[in-house]
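Continued from yesterday's entry.
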Amino acid sequence: MSQGAYLEFANRAFDKVDVTVDFCNKKDWEHGKYPQWENPVLTEKCYLSSTRLEMASGKVHGYFRVTITIDGKSENFGSKEFDLNDATNGTRNWSYYYSGGINDCVILVTYGRGLDTLGGEKMKNKRGCYRFEIFRASKRRIAVMTDYHYGCKENGNTGNQINVVNEINRLRDRPEFLVMTGDLLHNPTKLEDRDIWKNFIDPLELKNIPVADGFGNHDLWTGVGAENVKKDIKKRNKTRKSDWKLFGYSDSENKKTCDNDGYHYRWRIDLQKRMANGEMKQKHIECIMLNNVPGETNVDDIGKKGDKKVDDSQKEGTWSFDSLGFLERSLSKLDCPSARKDTILLLFFHINYESESMENTNAFYRWWPREARGKYNDILKECKLPNCAFFGHIHNEKMFHEELHMDSCETTGLKGYRCAVSKTNRYLNVIDLELVEENGECKLRMTTKYGKTADLTVKGDSLDDFDTKYF
């Protein structure tokens, strides 16, 4: 019986990409013949190519070489042949190949068993996948979804969410990361309706879109079906330690106590651009997941004191699990000039900068006490890194600018983005990060967009532009 795997290519960035595959060793392929293969031309509209290749039975390999051609310049990627057999022998492996001969080109190579094909086909008979996705080295895309409230039956947030997964994956410029900033689950949520990981997050990762998930106030409330979310995040962080080595994953700055260890984490995205004078410039995007709210101590929910209609299960709504300590310790790793140079900080958590009501002191400080706001502000001002925060909590189907307030009159100057939420309609918020050259200087341009996943097209035309800023 023959064996085999899918060989896939995706053009995620360029007008046109020519792909040439040369197969080695006839005896390794089915019937002792080279596979039937038409070298694809990947354009903006026809940007995917997926073919199932068969190898001969027995202890054989499926060696092949790949040549990419863009704008008349070609390069063979890989110092040795790729082996299709590697795709059938284990779980997912990641690597990046940066082109030396093609300007601004990087290829994400993924192989292993368990991945869905780009076309959505499920693997059968232990088949694997060997995938090449072609990006720009100077541009990355991060997506944010917040307040999914999985388990909200009236809004269709139960059961298999593969339609939403496919809507995100069909984007030509698909995100390289998806960040979920809390309130993953709705309340009350029955045990059988609470598995957002099985029904949404895992299928996304099988499409090669890693998910950085964090918990919000709804995910902390005990007694309403969400009490194990912290454990789920902690468990996933153990997996991320091995799977995200490529992205500089770390959670080692967590305070070593049983209460705070293992929840918060950080990872890195690197961009590089060759300038007009031939010089190579880089910028590093340090991403930090702080989960529910930046704070040091776990504080009872003052907004619920004396409310007889609400039981004690919601008293943990403001718990922070020393996320400020994690932030401070993470930034201390960047104290040396070489680590800080050309670094931009992106922060992700749940509670928004302006909270719920600045007119009502209890409501304003319910989720984020003044002392914790002040400490957060001090940490970021002291580190002097360009930074921006992304959060949810308040339910709107648009993006909003927010400034961190200490009270209704006092602002701090820290700016952030409250994202469109996914409780009623599933919204994708997009952060496009691109290095651009202006007057001989390399700058990072950050463009934010948002739109319903149900409206996404291959080219992402339905995403509404929200804001552009430079670092």
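--- second protein ---
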Amino acid sequence: MAEYRLEDLARISGVSTRNIRAYRERGLLDSPRRVGRAAYYGEQHVAQLAAISQLLAKGFSSAHIADFFAGLRRGQDLADALGIQGSDWRGPGTTLPVDPDDDDVRTLVEFGLARVVDDEVELTEPAVAAIVGTADDARAYVRIVAHIARSTDAAVDQLAASAAAAVAECERFQPRTDLRELAEAVASVGVDRALRHRLSAAE
């Protein structure tokens, strides 16, 4: 079983050593195995850091994530850990009554917004599912989502290229493993601000 020192874990996970220490202090990350004064991390820590990064990117706070993980460590299932009442959360709003071979559905799958399981189309992005899954005309909304995805693809790719170039430039004088996280956060805020401004101007 692979084990890593703190610096190795930071390099593999892309999370800074400072953030790893902070996650441990806040109860997000399991304690490492200690041998004397040395601390060793395993694959479960790599997986936990990946989950933490994904949840933070979706807007959850570190306090929320700590609560989720505490519940999972107590043996709760995910619904209980999230504080969700009820058992059937794979019904309306997740699976769509549309043809999996439809071109728009293929676009959603290509962009990571949906997947096809047993000939059923499932939305994978919660924010999209909350809107499309409850719409009276799901097919029309699938068409809209696909159109937005195609129309913004080139611009999103250009934004990603610019952010990656900025990170590479910064790494030359400030080599840190958390610059990718920083770039994602800054770009996300920038896109949200610009989109709100454009949509407000169009009203």
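The CA atoms of residues 17 and 36 lie 20 Å apart. Strands lie at 33-35, 38-40, 95-96, 114-117, 120-123. Will compare against the first tomorrow.
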